[in-house]
Amino acid sequence: MDALKESAQRVQNLLSEWGYKNQVVELPDSARTAQEAADAIGCEVAQIAKSIIFRLKSSDEPLLVVASGVNRVNEKHIANLLNDKLGKADADFVRERTGFVIGGVAPIGHADNLMTFIDEDLFQYKTLWAAAGHPKAVFELTPDELVTMTGGQVIQVK
After folding, report:
1. Phi/psi zone of residue 11: left (φ > 0), alpha (ψ -120 to 50 degrees), beta?
2. Checking DSSP bridges between strand 48-56 and strand 86-88, what pairing results, if any?
3. Structure pTM?
C-alpha cells in the first residue's frame, strides 16, 4: 500500500491517537466535489459529509459547516443563528485556518479550533464519508463519530 499524502497522514494519525479504527483511503481520482467522491466510493451523494468553511464577518473567525453532499447550506439561516454575517473563505484563508486545501478539508485536525455545525440530515445514514485532508483522501465514519470528533452542534443547515 502506498504511503498517504502528508495532509491525509495527519488525519490518519489523529484518528489513531484518538483511539478510532477509521482508515483514511486515497481514491484514484479526485473527490473534490461530493458527486466525485460518491462516484469514486460507490455511495449516495447524501452520504458525503462535505466540510465547508465560512468566514465570520464580525470576528474574522472560521466556521465549519459539515453538510450532506446533497444539501446547499442556507447561509441566511446560519447567519441568523450566529447573529453574524457569513463571508466567503478564500483558498488562503482556508489553508491558513484549517491547514488543508479547499476540496480536501477534513472535519478534524485543523490548525485552529473551529466552531462547527453538523447537518442533521447526515443522521439518516449509518455511515458517512468525509474528506481526509487531501482532495483524493476520504475516511468512513458514523454520524455519532462525526459529532464526537468535532464537538459540533447538530442543526438544520438547509
Report:
1. alpha
2. antiparallel
3. 0.95
